Amino acid sequence: QPSVIATIKGKTDDIIVVGGHADSIAGWWGRTNAHAPGADDNASGTATVTEILKVLSESGYTPEKTIKFMAYAAEEVGLLGSKEISQNFKRSGKNVVGVLQLDMTNFNNSNDDITLITDYTNEAQNNFLGTLLDTYLPELAWGRDKCGYGCSDHASWTAQGYPASIPFESRKGDMNGNIHTSRDTLEYMGGTAEHALKFAKLGLAFVIELDK
């Protein structure tokens, strides 16, 4: 499976990354030919990434920094796509000033609208996201939680020394029980993308403010 990267070229070679994984899986280790629609994990994240790209493109926004939108291959079998890309960026000496990971954005079973994962992420950037939420999305409740392991592609970037964050759809203990099954469909998320919209708004604030 290939990873896919779309780029809005900026005036400098400093890079902002917004990404999410493009693969889905049935079972935690995969089953041959099993049905894995992956609507939340992670069509919701990749749709949020592309919505941010769409809004910026249609607005004619001209960034100072270069913005890269990534759909990573093979996250479910070991973060393979993001490992390959982040390691390549490190070897090439690319200056990535911030990475936003969007992995599951449309299911909510918590009191908080958005949960910032604190492990395998950058504390200063997490605080920056909290400021963005308070400033631009004050109607949303947000909190913090731990994943307990390198649970998505942000961990690949963190391992290479780049600042990475993952705003998540719920607290870890409240997460969508239908992921990695044939029931991971929009039907089981209320039939709308209203929760994911919150993440698209946060992602836009992240890109534009970090670009400044």
The percent of residues in helical segments reads 25-40%
How many beta strands in the DSSP annotation?
8
Strand order of the largest sheet: 1-3-2-4-7
Mean pLDDT: 95
Low-confidence stretches: none
Q: What are the secondary-structure elements, in order, as H or E?
A: EEHEHEEHEHEEH
Quaternary state reads single chain
Strand content: 15-25%
Number of helices, where a helix is a run of at least 4 consecutive DSSP H or I residues: 5
Rg of Cα set: 16 Å
Structural class: alpha/beta
Blueprint (SSEs and pairs):
Elements: E1 4-8, E2 15-21, H1 39-59, E3 66-72, H2 80-91, E4 96-101, E5 114-117, H3 123-136, E6 142-145, H4 154-159, E7 164-165, E8 167-168, H5 194-211
Parallel strand pairs: 2-3, 2-4, 4-7, 5-6
Antiparallel strand pairs: 1-3, 5-8
Helix pairs in contact: 1-5
Key descriptive features of the protein:
three-stranded mixed beta sheet, 17% strand, alpha/beta, single chain, 212 residues, five-stranded mixed beta sheet, globular
Descriptive account of the structure:
The structure is a single chain. With 212 residues, the protein is α/β, with parallel strands linked by helices. 33% of the residues lie in helices and 17% in strands. The chain contains 5 helices and 8 strands. It has helices at residues 39-59, 80-91, 123-136, 154-159, 194-211; strands at residues 4-8, 15-21, 66-72, 96-101, 114-117, 142-145, 164-165, 167-168. It has a 5-stranded mixed sheet, sandwiched between helices. A 3-stranded mixed sheet has the order 6-5-8, covered by helices on one side. α3 links the parallel β5 (114-117) and β6. α1 (39-59) crosses α5 (194-211). It is globular, with a radius of gyration of 16 Å. The mean pLDDT is 95.
